[in-house]
Amino acid sequence: MSIDALKDKxxxxxxxxxxxxxxxxxxxxxxxxxxxxxxxxxxxxxxxPVVRDALIGEAAAHxxxxxxxxxxxxxxxxxxxxxxYRFVHLASNKQYGTLPAKLRMNIIANPGxxxxxxxxxxxxxxxxxxxxxCIDAHEAVLAxxxxxxxxxxxxxxxxxxxxxxxxxxxxxxxxxA
Length: 177
Hints:
With 177 residues, the chain is an all-alpha fold. It has one domain: AhpD-like. 73% of the residues lie in helices and 0% in strands. Pfam families: CMD (PF02627). This is Alkyl hydroperoxide reductase AhpD.
């Protein structure tokens, strides 16, 4: 499947989502690896199989096997970290923040692609999952490595568009049932 096939599944009440998907697919703000890695990581993070499959299908021809695996790893490791660190941040008992996480996260140190790309994908997934601690941490690494505010904002904009596509597809499926 492709983004065009995904747009066909977006109902008329979500026309803005279709338009945003078109804008996103034609956007050249980021490098191809950054862009298509975001498609994969955010598609997986959306937890919608239609969106996931369309975006992985769109990205597969543009990513090396290592980059495809790294984007999948970013979605996966952030799925774990976002739950844990969101809890640490929101829990009234601040002692949790002083305890070791005891979570394996080796992929973050050696993702198999440029660190900045992996961090960008991790930031976008963290935005989808709503983890403020992870958003702050990944945004700081990106800024430290010289990534512009515009590029960071583009990644989060992609995440928001992809998440809205998942919601629109689910709403259309609910109406059809």
